[in-house]
Amino acid sequence: MALLRVEGPFDLALTTARFRAFGPDRACLWENGALLRAVGGREVRIAPAAGGVDVEPLDAETEPVVRKLLGLEFELEAFYAWAARVPELADLPGRFHGFRPALVPDAFEALVVSITAQQVSLASATAIRNRLIERFGVRVGRAWAFPTRERLAAAAPGELAALGFSARKAEYVAGLARSDLDLAALAALPDDAVKTRLTALRGLGEWTADWFLARHLGRAGAWPAGDLALRKALVSLYGEVDVRAAGERFAPFQNLTAHYLLARYLTP
DNA sequence: ACCCAGGCATTGG
DNA sequence: CCAATGCATGGG
């Protein structure tokens, strides 16, 4: 038993709900009440525990990845104190207490996942992504390591199209993998510069860049204004709205607000 | 069979 | 600058 202590509110089931909501996720596998994920070629098991989570193995390589994966860097208490005073958000801290947006620990994976989700339903995206993982990833225990950038750079667009990608999306993925963009270096840049670098690549638009800021870099002010589900969540609150302008109302907690609004909208 | 789903590039005004 | 169009799959 290796306890990773978690400060502040935390609910593993709420945080990992996205890994089972649209079918099992081969790269973040929920099984028997625990999350399985390949980290550096090893299978890591994350299970609920008093005061935090039980992580096996827990060491210098796995801990930062798990912290990111579980959204432990978010300032939930400050968000809750703020949200309690915003009428249309006031129910969220109680209803989703301890929900931390799960981040995608790897930059390349985050972008490819977003490409799979462009335009199609998340059920379709999940099915296609799982085929991609099984075709080009590596099985590590029960879970799978997401395909590496190097492996997908070596893949022909036709091989990707055979998995259900449109010809266009297959080119996006191959082009991203083969590009000379230093993905790790993006973490040091401000939000606007990250978006400029990403959207310079074919197939990466503003929606994809915003979700990269939100779900990979965990930037507090990220706000996916082009997101269809977020727009519908806001319309259910306010009626027809300009999503981008509405986001300013939620500064400096746009990222957490977006995730909580989506959680409420998608929860029956 | 048909329609929509957590976009994007391309084309044409 | 804005509107229209095609894309491929899964689920209703």
Short recap of the structure:
This protein is an alpha+beta fold.
Report on the biggest sheet: 5 strands, antiparallel
Order of helices and strands: EHEEEEHHHHHEEHHHHHHHH
User: What is the general shape?
Assistant: globular
- What percent of the residues sit in helical stretches (DSSP H or I)? 40-55%
What count of domains describes the coordinates?
3
Strand elements, count: 7
* Strand percent estimate: 5-15%
Q: Cα distance, first to last residue? A: 36 Å
* Adjacency order of strands in the biggest sheet: 1-5-4-3-2
**Count of runs of 4 or more consecutive helical residues:** 14
Q: Which class of secondary structure composition applies to the elements?
A: alpha+beta
Classified by CATH, the class of the largest domain is: Mainly Alpha
CATH architecture of the largest domain: Orthogonal Bundle
Mean pLDDT across all residues, rounded? 97
> CATH-wise, what's the superfamily of the largest domain?
Hypothetical protein, domain 2
Rounded to an integer in angstroms, the radius of gyration calculated over CA atoms is 18 Å
Low-confidence stretches: none
In CATH, the topology of the largest domain is named Endonuclease III, domain 1
